[in-house]
Amino acid sequence: MNNKDFYLFFPKKLESGSGKIKLLKNKIGDKKVFILASESAYLNNKEIFDEIINEKCYLYFVCKGEPTVDSVDAAAAVARNFLPELIIGFGGGSAMDTAKAVAALCTNEGSILNYLELPQYNKKLNYAPLKWYAVPTTSGTGSESTKNAVISGEKFKKSIRDDRLIADYIILDPDLMTSTPLENTVISGVDCICQLTESYLSVNSNFITDILSLEGLKLAKNLNKIIKYPENINLRNDMALAATFSGITLANAGLCAVHGIANLFSEEFKIIHGVACGVLLPHVLMYSEKDNEKKYCNIYKALGGKGKYKRYLLSEYILKYWAELKFPNKLDISTDRKTLSALVEKAYLLQKNNPVKLTKENINDIICKIVDVRN
Length: 375
Ligand SMILES: [Fe+2]
Hints:
By secondary structure, the chain is of the alpha/beta class. The protein folds into two domains: 14-176, Rossmann fold, CATH 3.40.50.1970; 182-374, Dehydroquinate synthase-like - alpha domain (Dehydroquinate synthase-like, alpha domain), CATH 1.20.1090.10. The protein has helices at 24-28, 39-44, 46-52, 69-82, 93-105, 182-201, 207-220, 223-228, 233-253, 257-269, 273-287, 293-302, 313-324, 337-348, 360-370; strands at 14-16, 33-37, 57-61, 86-91, 132-136, 148-152, 157-161, 169-172, 334-336, 372-374. The strands form three sheets. It has a six-stranded parallel β-sheet. Strand 4, helix 5 (93-105) and strand 5 form a beta-alpha-beta unit. It binds fe (ii) ion.
């Protein structure tokens, strides 16, 4: 146990288990509710969902893909006009992030751009966001239990962040997750494993987040079994909990160089977040191992690794695990030497919380392993 001072931040209330979605009906009651749902999540669960909502609810479908400044502002304009008492996010990470951002814009004026962590903006929220409930239908981003929403612009991907953006209520019902397409299940599950691993290795981790990270990894290790048995409620339940734990650990301990550099690839080359993180993970881990063998061994065991741990075994194990999931081992990027140098310079600044300070040479080697570099 480390004895560093720490700060802990948890979601307010969490209901976990099969059938818990039915509790939402009473929670909604006769309130005016603005629901930000992913259309596919709604259609996959239409029967359950239609029994819960009533004529006082406004059902708004969020845009496909990650939320943008324009998509959030458009949703907020409709919500402001509707004057809701409560916001609900229903779907994957994009629905959660849009719900959080709209909850903030229902009580604060202007565009979401004003509140993003960009040097020229970064305005603080004057008023507490509207209450919001999270009902995730995918497992991975952990956005249901974080205090930030990630929003993309033309050439950036930044967060609005505020302690008051934490969900007032989370329903984790695995029944809603069995219909998640397998590709999404894998990509978001890999993102979850990255988040748990990075928050465990973060220089800002503490003994509570360490427990949650390792327990989360033990739950997430069966991602490969979900691919074989996608309708298994117990496996889906485990993955849902792992994802929510990853949101809690990342909100408290932060993430490391994997997410930092992955965001660069998402911003510059529009690579899907979970894909960029997963491809980077084994390589960044290899260059960050040094004196962290004990923690690396714990991650290896939590993910189901057997036998005596030796240096670099975790990276090798993850590469094999990804291959079993048919997860890519390279990014679909071809770049020239000049662009590579520019990427290395930018990535070097994105290793906040990493247990080891990566050199520019390390980062160059990592990037060369995962993209095609033309001469
Ligand atoms: Fe992530």
